Please model this.
Amino acid sequence: MTEALLRAKLEALAVDARVHSAGTLPWVGSASDGARAAMREYGLDLDAHRSRALSTELLDGADLVLGMTRQHVWSVANYAPDVVERAFLVGEAIRLGTTAGPRSADEPLRAWATRVAALRADPRVPGHPQDEVADPAGEALEVYRATAARLDAELDRLVTLLVGQ
Model:
């Protein structure tokens, strides 16, 4: 859901960006029924989505890595320790990014992420508990809807920090 929402927000602003998702568990398949239903309510189609595993290749090419839970960010650290300075919980990126200030037009995204990561109280601990977004896997549609609504609002704030819109 995060990938679809973020991609749609950036496309609406004509921002040229590569947005991908990857899982931390060895599961291959399509988006869940709940995720597909929740995203349809935002006009987004996840029918063609297929999961893929997190890899060092994906991480090395990423300027910014977003996780929903601390476990996701810790998994990034296990795959590619040097990527941690640009890996955040969604809420953490917003909280610290608000303190750091928005990315300037001439500032590379990786540089902004590194500047934001420098504000962590402890670089080994990603975010605060309230920065996490619980995975709705296996939950009722209402939980997927609530998760989508939270992600939608938070990604609006993140996009503002990233592109100044």
